[in-house]
Amino acid sequence: MYPKTFIFILFIILLNVFLSPTTAQYLIGVGSYDSTGPAAGVNMMGYANLDQSTAGIHFRLRARAFIIAESLDGPRIAFVNLDAGMASQLVTIKVLERLSKRFGKLYNEDNVAISGTHTHAGPGGYMQYVLYSVTSLGFIPQSFDAIVTAIEMSILQAHQNLKSGSVFINTGDLVNAGVNRSPSAYLFNPPTERERYPRDVDTLMTLLKFVDGTSQKSVGAFTWFATHGTSMSSNNTLISGDNKGAAARFFEDWFTSTSTNSTTFYAQENTSTSALIKRASTIKATGGQPCSQTSSQGFKVRKNNGGSQFVGAFCQSNVGDVSPNVLGAFCTDTGLPCDFNHSSCHGNDQLCIGRGPGYPDETKSTKIIGERQFLKAVELFTSAKEQLTGKIDYRHIYLNFTNIDVKLADNQTAKTCPAALGAGFAAGTTDGPGAFGFQQGDKKINEFWKRVRDFLKKPSAYQVDCQNPKPVLVSTGEMFFPYAWAPAIVPIQILRIGKLVILSVPGEFTTMSGRRLRESVKKTLIDNGNGGFDNNTHVVIAGLTNTYSQYIATPEEYQQQRYEAASTLYGPHTLSAYIQEFNKLAESMAKGLKIVDKGPSPPDLSSIQLTLLPDPPGESLPPGIKFGDMKHDIYTPKTGFFRKGDKPSVVFWSPNPRYDLLTEGTYAVVEMLQREMWVPAYDDDDFSLIFKWNVDNSSNNGLASLEWEVPNSAINGVYRFRHFGSSKETIVSTVKYFTGASSAFTVS
Ligand SMILES: *[C@@H]1O[C@H](CO)[C@@H](O)[C@H](O)[C@H]1NC(C)=O
Ligand SMILES: *[C@@H]1O[C@H](CO)[C@@H](O)[C@H](O)[C@H]1NC(C)=O
Ligand SMILES: *[C@@H]1O[C@H](CO)[C@@H](O)[C@H](O)[C@H]1NC(C)=O
Ligand SMILES: *[C@@H]1O[C@H](CO)[C@@H](O)[C@H](O)[C@H]1NC(C)=O
Ligand SMILES: *[C@@H]1O[C@H](CO)[C@@H](O)[C@H](O)[C@H]1NC(C)=O
Ligand SMILES: *[C@@H]1O[C@H](CO)[C@@H](O)[C@H](O)[C@H]1NC(C)=O
What we know:
The chain is an alpha+beta fold. Among the domains are: 3-258 and 307-324 and 358-392 and 499-549 and 592-608, no CATH class; 630-747, Immunoglobulin-like. The chain is built from 15 helices and 38 strands. Strands 1, 4, 5, 6, 8, 10, 11, 13 and 17 form a nine-stranded mixed sheet that branches. A seven-stranded antiparallel sheet has the order 7-2-3-34-35-31-30, with no helix packed on it. Strands 12, 32, 33, 36, 37 and 38 form a six-stranded antiparallel sheet that branches. A hairpin with a 5-residue loop joins β10 and β11. The radius of gyration is 26 Å and the shape is globular. The two termini are 20 Å apart. The relative contact order is 0.15. The site of one 2-acetamido-2-deoxy-beta-D-glucopyranose (NAG) has 4 residues, from loops.
């Protein structure tokens, strides 16, 4: 962190201490739970890239939740921010089933929202519609269970933490964390409309701050801001929360380090470097040893685990056309900007790649875009003073999007269509280009691909006409083998916390789509609210929530058929249908009416999911080697010690990490010697420590590499690596746990 920012933050904190305490308005609770899925061999959700499978962890994924209730028996809402590509209908269904077993009717589809951060670096296989599980080779129970359990546990924690408290809201602009990746499509929107906005992306960040009513201490903060989780590219194989997960990690670490009860390490400043080196040289590696999951301190090292931690969450918004690769898109062969209308390079879309601010280092880009969101959030957090008061309320319905009658502005009527993808979908985006020679903006499909398409499913004449000008490449809404390829039934939901209204949308609204929806809903609320809403009401879009139905472009953007439009499933009037139906919910909320027709329930396809990726079969090692033994110990530099920024690493013999996900634990630890005891200092949830897993090509055995980039904040002293893992001899054996430690090394 920059010294100036730091001093500014300190100043604001001091200022806050002297502000008079506020009266608690609500019951509030927050929770957070590890949702990290299988870290080896599972295709990642987002880029639909067959080659992109997990091979380790950069940092862990989490579900973060808040609950706000008017009173113990008054209305309440639960909102979950999930480090995942998107929400999944089946996940939502199963979470609600578990919540109803625990709590009866307290938490249900009406008042629970589950929103995905849109990281493209999490394991896939947790979605029920065919299109979203093609590249993961079907449904992956281990991915699914990790996510469902984490959401359930985060809500349970928030529920158990409920106590009287206040909620503050603050907003501000963040201008350098997103650019429009389809600016030519944005230009199709009417000039008079565009003139009303300074930019072609929304820069507004909205933050909620939760403050305990008794202690007046902050317990959490949730923000909404639109930018894609594509700082990590389609080449990445490490599980990562991308820029939003990074921002959350930074925010929570910052809060923990500025509050008093965090672990403190004592520096060995009085000890000379040579004495440290001498001490380190006496501590040799310990080979693989059995350990039990409960007795080992190493499995659970996070300083702020448990029920009372601070939760900082970075939620997604109208993200459709917003890329975090803010330097723009360039051709990898010539280095020149790509074709403006098609984002291709002399006809080849695969050469056109967006660059993040850390280019060419995508981890650095993730860190920078994460830091920008984190620093803005800290600023909004420390200066938040508008307190939310008033009603907690919610409305939720399901819509069959296959054929909604839409009333257009000119009194004409139109219909939405069965789901379909256009050619521009296959072209991908500048964040992750597609394949097969398609380009964004393609309005024709050649004979070859038409034949392939018709072999799969020939779109009906009605569909082709309905989707026009989208050239139908995959008529997902008309494909049901072996089960539905796309959702027909999707939920929409409005949550209200006094002057804040959250719109839960089941997809990715483009910038202008989001603006139109927010503006229209706000007007409806004010017009029908009898003073309950006014111009100061905040309307926030929560993107990728409750289920996933891809993109929502404006009808004008739809004409150009870039990726976002080609992925707008239900035809040119998709957005108009959303606005129309959200307005009905808004009117019902503003007038205090009940929803009479809750719409058709979505199908539960869990019993017919196909799983083509097998679980790991169990494994053994060559004689004389135990799991947790090292293949390579530390390579100490000639100086005898490591400096800040150096990257010490070690390699352990290690079985597939899928035998146990070590949920709320860690595969990797950097321990520091403290008064002759090893104390965990960094784990696989820290940005600086990376756990990689792959198969040794010569012996066909698994290897775990632990790599630590010594952060500037590291304290001088003696350190070592520690690895934790689990194994099975055969698929039916019980799981056994092991650990191993490297030789000690010095940081100075
Ligand atoms: C992935 O790596 C390849 C090979 O280095 C490179 O050509 C390609 O542009 C990269 N893709 C992305 C999306 O960064
Ligand atoms: C992009 O397409 C628009 C029309 O859709 C056209 O007016 C414009 O000239 C094109 N721009 C470039 C750089 O090709
Ligand atoms: C949605 O509506 C279409 C058209 O009316 C109908 O064919 C289909 O069965 C409905 N889908 C579901 C899941 O109810
Ligand atoms: C649409 O119809 C309503 C009433 O049916 C009418 O008041 C309005 O003027 C019409 N608008 C247009 C643009 O024709
Ligand atoms: C509502 O607020 C916006 C900006 O916050 C302002 O531009 C607009 O003029 C206000 N409208 C009314 C009716 O006060
Ligand atoms: C095994 O080979 C693949 C492809 O040649 C390579 O990417 C991978 O890093 C190798 N694994 C190890 C452990 O050397």
